[in-house]
Specification:
Structural class of chain B: mainly alpha
Number of domains of chain A: 2
Largest interface: A-B, 31 and 28 residues
Number of helices of chain A: 15
Oligomer: heterodimer
Radius of gyration of chain B: 25 Å
Strand content of chain A: 15-25%
Radius of gyration of chain A: 24 Å
Number of strands of chain A: 16
Order of helices and strands of chain B: HHHHHHHHHEEHHHHHHHHHHHEEHH
CATH architecture of the largest domain in chain B: Orthogonal Bundle
CATH architecture of the largest domain in chain A: 3-Layer(aba) Sandwich
CATH class of the largest domain in chain A: Alpha Beta
Low-confidence stretches of chain B: 1-22, 48-52, 304-311
Strand content of chain B: under 5%
Number of domains of chain B: 2
Largest sheet of chain A: 6 strands, mixed
Distance between the termini of chain A: 69 Å
Mean pLDDT of chain A: 88
Distance between the termini of chain B: 51 Å
Strand order of the largest sheet of chain B: 1-2
CATH class of the largest domain in chain B: Mainly Alpha
CATH superfamily of the largest domain in chain A: P-loop containing nucleotide triphosphate hydrolases
Chain lengths: 422, 569
């Protein structure tokens, strides 16, 4: 048994999900990745980049469309028995007591019945829940539920602990406590689990937790960068090393998600996932703060996820309302005009900018050409499918309608599934 | 096996040891078990007692408790069968993508076949199989009750298994649960609430045709089994008013007792299987359940579940066997369906064109009656349901009451209503619409109550803040908000009305037989006269009409209601 090779490996993994019409949506593209013994590996990226899917492929919960999954050098078949899995929503069976949620898994693993009670108690004590063993999940707070999830994941003494955004549904202080607990368990002498894989969208969290950080890009999900995090443990959020690393991650992500040189004008553009309301809100926010702000600061101050903020910035940039020199977002001259204008004029500017985009222009021309003055939803879906073959076109279509509605460019009749001029 | 016997025995003796003073509840429980056992033995004994195609029914009131017990046992036997069927069929349909494509539409068709469509086949086959005893007849009655119970439970179980939350089923995959453990720990609990509620409705569905299931005429043969249904039938035949009233009272008592002693406790118990936490619904309460929980027997039963069982090695062999069994069963099913279809075609070929035209016309008439009865129910049930649903206090008291009333088999009231109508000079043509309404209005009512009590508080407050008038509030808020529920009520009520047409378009009282032309009357008469080809034609056309109407009208309407008027968004 090799000790210095990677524990888990992905080679050229592709995952596609079929869509009702059109080509399959590619969630992961050519992913190569390894998990090494003894490390905490974090996967970070915008939502929809396939990081949760990747975790499921690594665990053997989901078979890749193409490519190979290896565990200790051998191809993985079915679920990896060496993995403890923590789910985003804790995923406890509501009809079982806390203890039963754990014993059920122990039993499935063939643990001898004599051993089960002692092991259950030990693992519940490890997460500080021994006294609520007979409570039902609905009686527990979110943090306690996630602790039960931890206990269940650790009950099989796994070599690998996989965590799918485990702290995203608990409040910030509880999340802090849970992070420290997980690291304590991981750092304990007997090293079970020996490696942790964490999926997250929280940059400070991954810098605090990880030894290596894998940055993903969305549509389709790809590995864009792997960053080492050699900071000594225990770590301090305020240490210069940690802030520098957070800063570096910010740069990597903005370089990837907000390129300074926009892609060459495609006939039809993919629309960033932001509503008209978010774009207008961003422009107002910038105007109220002197017209310039760091994108991550905007995310932090508006209490939103960085990927949502970046999407709004990209949408605003597509409409020439802002510029993005590196990580800063600057109100462009048109944005300044927009923010000062009364409502009718704002919508006129918006409409004019939309018509600068191939997708909206093509739909307008099609409406003008059609004798009835309307086009079907499927026509637009096809245009989108050509522009962004691997995206979720229905979602893009909804954005399209929302943008057009704000600019009073088209109206959409949901019952007839048709677009027309207002 | 011996180990389990020992454990149960041990628990029982430990219980006797501990409880020096057994509580009243424990005593009642033991008594109930004993009574059921005695009843079963007597029913079994009687079934073996030689061929008696038409049992004499004793119309004295003293005989009623015994008949009620027999009917109950039949209902319970049919229910056990329904439960097993639902779980087996639903599980299969949810797990096997290929079989699902046949099983689900097939269930839709089965659901739309009225009980009389199954009757001749069951009776002729089973009576022939047990020529020397009434076992065949008993089985036929139980199976007829089964056909009134099984389908909606099956749908419910199938849907629940298919919609287990993704993360929970991933836990089972990650924990490498065996198929059995996944079923026991994940799928069955997730389906429990739906199964309990549908069981309640199914039991009512089984009672609906009790009179037909226990006493029926097939050609020149008159079949009767001792039970409340047969008692009522005979009372109606003889025009014995006192006996009719007595059997209605006995049936009502039976329904109320079952509700209080079985269904309410089960509903309260099943609350623990709720997947969404909290939720706006009132927690179900049951005094019997509370008593049981406090009783020693209850504690012993709960305690018994504690000891962990030895682990089984992952039954790969079982999984492999299942993966072979499913296609095999599917082929068998296709074979049976094919053979059945061929026989049906063969039977139907005998029908003349004019017979088909007649059946078509009768179906159209009955369709009109069904819609009229649904409209009639809507007319009063919507305002009443909104009024009840808006007041939490009224809803808490009346909603369970309405469910009990809905469980009472309306056909038992038909003779009285028909006599009343005749006295008032109303013919059965219009009268049968009223009978159908009587049978199905409750479905509309309790769905509207559920909808009205789910109207979000903020919308209610908004309509008061802007001082919407009574009528405006009804039109702008309550009607749209209850609409999705109303559609559900309509679908159920219409389904029930089609079924009810069989007993409301053709009513025999004393020596008279009242007939209102329609497909229900055609089915009843064809069955009574044992004209099997005509019966098959009528049942086929009715089933096809019901299925087509569901697809073309109710389902799109339900979709629109969900999209446009759903308040849960």
């Amino acid at each position: 048994m090799a000790t210095n090779g990677p524990l888990c490996e992905l080679r050229k993994v592709v995952v596609e999900f079929p869509q009702p019409h059109g080509p399959a949506r590619r969630v992961l593209e050519d992913v190569d990745l390894e998990v090494r013994a003894g490390e905490v590996l974090a996967l970070i990226g915008p939502s929809g980049c396939g990081k949760s899917t990747l975790l499921r492929v690594l665990a053997g919960l989901l078979a890749p469309t193409r490519g190979e999954v290896r565990f200790r050098g051998a191809p993985l078949r079915g679920v990896n028995p060496a993995v403890g899995f923590m789910f985003q929503g804790a995923a406890l069976f509501p009809w079982m007591t806390v203890a039963r949620n754990v014993t059920e898994v122990l039993r499935a693993a063939g643990t001898s019945p004599a051993e089960i009670p002692a092991r259950t108690e030990r693992v519940l004590r490890l997460v500080g829940l021994a006294e609520v063993a007979d409570a039902y999940p609905r009686e527990l707070s979110g943090g306690m539920k996630q602790r039960v999830g931890t206990a269940r994941a650790l009950s099989l003494e796994p070599e690998l602990l996989f965590m799918d955004e485990p702290f995203s549904q608990v409040d910030a202080l509880t999340a802090e406590a849970l992070r420290a607990e997980i690291l304590d368990i991981w750092a304990a002498a007997d090293r079970h689990p020996s490696a942790v894989v964490l999926v997250s969208h929280d940059i400070p969290e991954v810098v605090y937790m990880a030894d290596r950080i894998v940055v993903f890009d969305a549509n389709p999900g790809r590995v864009r960068a792997v960053i080492d995090d050699p900071l000594p443990r225990p770590r301090d959020y305020r240490s210069p090393g940690l802030t520098q690393l957070v800063d570096r991650l910010h740069d990597v992500i903005t370089g990837m998600e907000m390129p300074d040189v926009p892609a060459a004008g495609a006939p039809v553009e993919a629309l960033p996932d932001a509503s008209a309301g978010e774009v207008v809100g961003l422009v107002e926010y910038l105007d109220a703060r002197g017209g310039r702000e760091d994108v991550f600061r905007i995310a932090a101050e508006t209490d939103s996820r960085f990927d949502r903020t970046i999407n709004a910035v990209n949408a605003a940039e597509l409409l020439d309302l802002v510029d993005t020199p590196r990580r800063a977002v600057v109100l462009a001259p048109l944005g300044q005009r927009f923010v000062r204008a009364p409502d009718m004029e704002r919508r006129a500017i918006w409409r004019e900018r939309l018509l600068g985009l191939g997708l909206f222009r093509q739909v307008q021309e099609a409406i003008a050409r059609s004798p009835a003055g309307r086009v079907e939803r499927d026509f637009v879906l096809e245009l989108i499918a050509i522009a962004a073959p691997r995206e979720d076109f229905e979602a893009v279509f909804e954005r399209f309608v929302s943008w057009a509605r704000y600019g009073r460019l088209f109206v959409y009749d949901d019952a007839a599934q048709e677009l027309a001029a207002p | 096996m011996r180990e389990r016997v020992n454990r149960v025995f041990g628990a029982a003796s430990a219980l006797l040891d501990r409880s020096r003073r057994p509580s009243v509840v424990d005593a009642a429980l033991l008594l109930a078990v004993a009574a059921a056992a005695i009843g079963l033995v007597r029913l079994g004994h009687r079934s073996g007692g030689g061929l008696r195609a038409a049992v004499e029914i004793d119309l004295s009131v003293a005989a009623l408790p015994r008949y009620a017990l027999y009917s109950l046992l039949r209902g319970v036997a049919a229910y056990a069968l329904s439960l097993a069927f639902s779980i087996g069929y639903g599980y299969w349909a949810a797990k096997d993508r290929r079989a699902e494509r046949v099983l689900v539409p097939l269930l839709d068709v089965l659901q739309s076949i009225p009980v009389l469509g199954f009757m001749p086949g069951l009776v002729l086959a089973l009576v022939a199989a047990f020529p020397r005893s009434s076992v065949g007849l008993e089985l036929a009655a139980i199976l007829m009750i089964f056909t009134g119970q099984a389908w909606n439970m099956t749908f419910s179980f199938y849907r629940s298994v298919g919609s287990v939350p993704k993360e929970l089923s991933e836990v089972a995959t990650w924990g490498r649960f065996s198929a059995w453990q996944r079923f026991r720990a994940v799928e069955l609990p997730a389906a429990a609430i739906g199964l309990v509620w549908n069981s309640m409705m199914s039991m009512a569905g089984g009672w609906f045709f009790l009179m037909v299931s226990e006493a029926f005429v097939l050609g020149d043969r008159d079949f009767r089994l001792p039970g409340i249904g047969a008692y009522m039938s005979v009372a109606v035949q003889r025009g014995d008013g006192g006996a009719m009233v007595a059997s209605v009272v006995a049936m009502a008592l039976l329904v109320v007792l079952l509700d209080q002693l079985v269904w309410r406790p089960l509903v309260a118990w099943s609350e623990r299987f709720r997947l969404d936490e909290g939720g706006g619904a009132l927690p179900a309460r049951s005094w019997v359940y509370d008593l049981l929980r406090r009783s020693r027997l209850g504690a012993a039963l709960r305690g018994r579940r504690r000891p962990p069982r030895p682990p089984r090695p992952a039954p790969r062999a079982v999984a492999a066997a299942l993966s072979v069994a499913s296609p095999a069963a599917f082929l068998l099913l296709l074979g049976v369906l094919g053979a059945g279809g061929l026989r049906l075609v063969h039977l139907l070929r005998a029908e003349s064109v004019s017979a088909w035209v007649g059946v078509g016309r009768e179906t159209a008439i009955t369709l009109g009656r069904v819609l009229a009865s649904v409209a009639l129910a809507t007319l009063w049930a919507v305002p009443a349901g909104v009024a009840i649903g808006r007041s939490p206090r009224l809803a808490r008291v009346l909603q369970p009451a309405v469910q009990v009333v809905a469980s009472f088999p309306a056909p038992m009231l038909f003779p009285a209503v028909v006599l009343g109508l005749r006295a008032a000079g109303v013919g059965l043509g219009a009268g049968s619409v009223l009978l159908m309404t009587l049978a199905t209005q409750w479905y509309v009512l309790f769905n509207v109550i559920a909808g009205a009590s789910a109207v979000p508080a903020d919308l209610e407050e908004a309509s008061r803040a802007y001082r919407l008038g009574r009528w405006q509030r009804f039109r702008a808020l309550y009607l749209p908000a209850v609409f999705p529920y109303l559609v559900t009520g309509w679908v159920t009520a219409a389904g029930g009305a089609w079924n009810a047409s069989i007993v409301s378009e053709y009513v025999a009282i004393g020596k008279d037989t009242l007939v209102a032309p329609g497909i229900g009357a055609a089915i009843s008469r064809a069955a009574a006269e044992a004209r099997l080809a005509d019966l098959a034609a009528a049942v086929t056309v009715m089933a096809v009409t019901v299925v087509v109407f569901n697809r073309l009208v109710w389902r799109p309407l339900g979709r629109i209601a969900e999209e446009r008027f759903s308040v849960q968004r």
